[in-house]
């Protein structure tokens, strides 16, 4: 099944709820690709031998890998950590996550600063580009097991918004403008 993403209704309800607009407004994978968000659907039961995953890792240089288990029972300061993940931020590098069990929401800002909610489930792997404003939360299932990938030694530093002068933010904004330029030329 393809990944689901939609424009969010912003209100003060529980962040773990879907927050669909009324009527629902879904966002396609190609729309996500325009924002630099990449997506694959892989076999989560065979990640140790999965040739497709190996190919992605080799071609993109993802030589680091670890696992993150998020659930209230197994984590200290669960609510506090979740609130940190849900604070809007950027990174200087890609954020690469492969969902092996459970599910959760990655929210990303589109070009017009609207929140898009991306629902990742078992088998979904996504890459958020460096410099994109985003946040993460579990859904009402309250459990996710993620594989984290990285190029070289991992740096998990998060820079909370606003970060308009951060080099990776500037680079990201530039890449969006260049992409728009390309698509206009192509028409
Ligand atoms: Fe992040």
From TrEMBL:
Pathway: Amino-acid biosynthesis; L-methionine biosynthesis via salvage pathway; L-methionine from S-methyl-5-thio-alpha-D-ribose 1-phosphate: step 5/6. It catalyses: 1,2-dihydroxy-5-(methylsulfanyl)pent-1-en-3-one + O2 = 3-(methylsulfanyl)propanoate + CO + formate + 2 H(+); 1,2-dihydroxy-5-(methylsulfanyl)pent-1-en-3-one + O2 = 4-methylsulfanyl-2-oxobutanoate + formate + 2 H(+). InterPro entries: ARD, ARD_euk, RmlC-like_jellyroll, RmlC_Cupin_sf. GO terms for cellular component: cytoplasm; nucleus; plasma membrane. SUPFAM superfamilies: RmlC-like cupins. Its cofactor is Fe(2+); Ni(2+). It is a peripheral membrane protein. It is an enzyme of class 1 (oxidoreductase). Keywords: Amino-acid biosynthesis, Cytoplasm, Dioxygenase, Iron, Metal-binding, Methionine biosynthesis, Nickel, Nucleus, Oxidoreductase. Binds either 1 Fe or Ni cation per monomer. Iron-binding promotes an acireductone dioxygenase reaction producing 2-keto-4-methylthiobutyrate, while nickel-binding promotes an acireductone dioxygenase reaction producing 3-(methylsulfanyl)propanoate. GO terms for molecular function: acireductone dioxygenase (Ni2+-requiring) activity; acireductone dioxygenase [iron(II)-requiring] activity; iron ion binding; nickel cation binding. Fe(2+) binds at residues 89, 91, 95, 134. Its EC number is 1.13.11.54, 1.13.11.53. It is found in: Cell membrane; Cytoplasm; Nucleus. GO terms for biological process: L-methionine salvage from methylthioadenosine. This is Acireductone dioxygenase. It comes from Tetracentron sinense (Spur-leaf).
């Amino acid at each position: 099944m393809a990944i689901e993403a939609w424009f969010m209704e912003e209100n003060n309800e529980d962040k773990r709820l879907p927050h669909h607009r009324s009527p629902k407004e879904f966002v396609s994978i190609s729309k996500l690709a325009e924002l630099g968000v990449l997506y694959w659907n892989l076999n989560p039961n065979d990640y140790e031998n999965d040739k497709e995953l190996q190919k992605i890792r080799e071609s993109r240089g993802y030589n680091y890998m670890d696992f993150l288990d998020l659930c209230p029972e197994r984590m200290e300061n669960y609510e506090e950590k979740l609130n940190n993940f849900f604070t809007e931020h950027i990174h200087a590098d890609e954020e690469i996550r492969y969902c092996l069990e459970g599910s959760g929401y990655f929210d990303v800002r589109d070009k017009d600063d609207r929140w898009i909610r991306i629902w990742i489930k078992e088998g979904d792997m996504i890459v958020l580009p460096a410099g994109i404003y985003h946040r993460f939360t579990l859904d009402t299932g309250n459990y996710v097991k993620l594989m984290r990938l990285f190029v070289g030694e991992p740096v998990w530093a998060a820079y909370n918004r606003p970060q308009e002068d951060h080099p990776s933010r500037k680079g990201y904004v530039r890449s969006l403008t260049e992409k728009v330029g390309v698509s206009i030329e192509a028409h």
